């Protein structure tokens, strides 16, 4: 897969089949559409291209600081790279871009830059300034500029929309296994290990504190989770706490992981950590002793879960 920083940077000698969308999560519904894109490309001797926007239109137009996404743009790239698509075009969605008329968008971007011979698009997709054009207008443009339009049915679009919403809601409710089923891969959190309060080592449970730089990344419900990661090329399991550490009087939200059977300085490392299942809610314990006891139970639970599901 070739990545292009915006439609204007796209270069290819071939004609393309293009689909347009955010594809947050790249979940099973998205994967179906991408499969169709890739197969259509093969059958028509075209190259397949996904046109996606970043930042998300809602971040730009509504200054929607609250919008949370399942994938960071880096994660989205990595997952799409495995899908067999020839081109990923990440177009910066700006105020200026949003003012392109429907005709300008079709003519300048789809036809002249991307050389689209086919566009696969949802039945309800709207585009151009103020989102005034619809799929019928696109078909009209297709006759003029000689490309075909293939519609993604209402049912397929709804399936896709529903599963993105369902995945976000499942994560916010702590149901990571449900989210992982919809995604067909484990939801993960990625960031740099930073210094915490320095209490973990006294606890006998040192924890790597993850700092996630993308403020738009969705963080699942507070609580304790069994996790898996890769550190220096080796698979490691662990238990993660997402929360405010109320027992030791914390207030800020932290994401910290104790890795099982590991003794390594992790400061400054960039880790991607998969969430496998949820163990329990975060609690305010009366004493640190009681918290320690709970963490020992978490460890026993985690080891059993790993034996049951990931035994080699
Ligand atoms: C598996 C696990 C479960 C945890 N559960 C709780 C909890 O229920 N309540 C709580 O206040 N803190 C919980 N913590 C957080 C500890 O309070 C935290 O590790 C400790 O404050 C050390 O923080 P530090 O790494 O920033 O020094 C948990 C941590 C881990 C790794
Ligand atoms: N098994 C392990 N799991 C997590 N971190 C570990 C582990 N072994 C060593 N470490 C190191 O210990 C650090 C955490 O220690 P801790 O006392 O909790 O300090 P702080 O909270 O100040 O970051 C981690 O960032 C990592 O560098």
Automatic annotation (TrEMBL):
Protein task: Catalyzes the phosphorylation of riboflavin to FMN followed by the adenylation of FMN to FAD.
Annotated metabolic or biological route of this protein: Cofactor biosynthesis; FAD biosynthesis; FAD from FMN: step 1/1; Cofactor biosynthesis; FMN biosynthesis; FMN from riboflavin (ATP route): step 1/1
Species this protein is from: Salinimicrobium gaetbulicola
Protein name: Riboflavin biosynthesis protein
PANTHER family: RIBOFLAVIN KINASE, RIBOFLAVIN KINASE/FMN ADENYLYLTRANSFERASE
UniProtKB keywords: ATP-binding, FAD, Flavoprotein, FMN, Kinase, Multifunctional enzyme, Nucleotide-binding, Nucleotidyltransferase, Transferase
Key word Transferase present: yes
InterPro entries: FAD_synthase, Riboflavin_kinase, Riboflavin_kinase_bac, Riboflavin_kinase_bac/euk, Riboflavin_kinase_dom_sf, Rossmann-like_a/b/a_fold
Domain (Riboflavin kinase): residue spans on this chain: 182-307
EC number: 2.7.1.26, 2.7.7.2
Enzymatic class: transferase
Family membership noted in the UniProt record: Belongs to the ribF family.
Highest taxon in the source lineage: Bacteria
Pfam families: FAD_syn (PF06574), Flavokinase (PF01687)
A GO molecular-function annotation: riboflavin kinase activity
Catalyzed reaction equations: riboflavin + ATP = FMN + ADP + H(+); FMN + ATP + H(+) = FAD + diphosphate
Key word Membrane present: no
């Amino acid at each position: 897969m070739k990545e292009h920083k915006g439609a204007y940077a796209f270069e290819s000698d071939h004609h393309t089949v293009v689909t347009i969308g955010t594809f947050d999560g790249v979940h099973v519904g998205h994967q179906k559409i991408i499969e169709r894109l890739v197969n259509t490309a093969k059958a028509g001797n075209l190259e397949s291209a996904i046109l996606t926007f970043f930042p998300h239109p809602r971040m730009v137009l509504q200054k929607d600081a609250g919008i949370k996404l399942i994938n960071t743009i880096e994660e989205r790239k990595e997952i799409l790279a495995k899908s067999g698509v020839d081109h990923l075009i990440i177009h910066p969605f700006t105020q200026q871009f949003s003012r392109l008329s429907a005709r300008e968008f079709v003519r300048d971007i789809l036809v002249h830059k991307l050389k689209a011979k086919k566009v696969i698009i949802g039945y309800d997709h709207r585009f151009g300034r103020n989102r005034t054009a619809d799929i019928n207008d696109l078909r009209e443009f297709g006759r003029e500029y000689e490309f075909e339009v293939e519609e993604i049915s209402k049912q397929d679009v709804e399936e896709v929309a529903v599963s993105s919403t369902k995945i976000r809601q499942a994560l916010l409710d702590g149901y990571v296994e449900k989210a992982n089923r919809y995604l067909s891969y484990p939801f993960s959190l990625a960031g740099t290990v930073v210094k915490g309060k320095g209490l973990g080592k006294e606890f006998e449970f040192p924890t790597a504190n993850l700092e996630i730089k993308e403020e738009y990344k969705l963080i699942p419900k507070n609580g304790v989770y069994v996790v898996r990661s890769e550190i220096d090329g080796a698979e490691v399991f662990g238990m993660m706490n997402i929360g405010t550490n109320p027992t030791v009087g914390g207030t800020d939200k932290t994401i910290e992981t104790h890795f099982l059977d590991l003794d390594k300085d992790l400061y400054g490392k960039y880790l991607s950590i998969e969430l496998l299942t949820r163990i329990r809610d975060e609690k305010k314990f009366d004493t640190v002793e009681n918290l320690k006891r709970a963490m020992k139970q978490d460890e026993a639970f985690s080891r059993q879960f790993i034996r049951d599901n990931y035994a080699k």
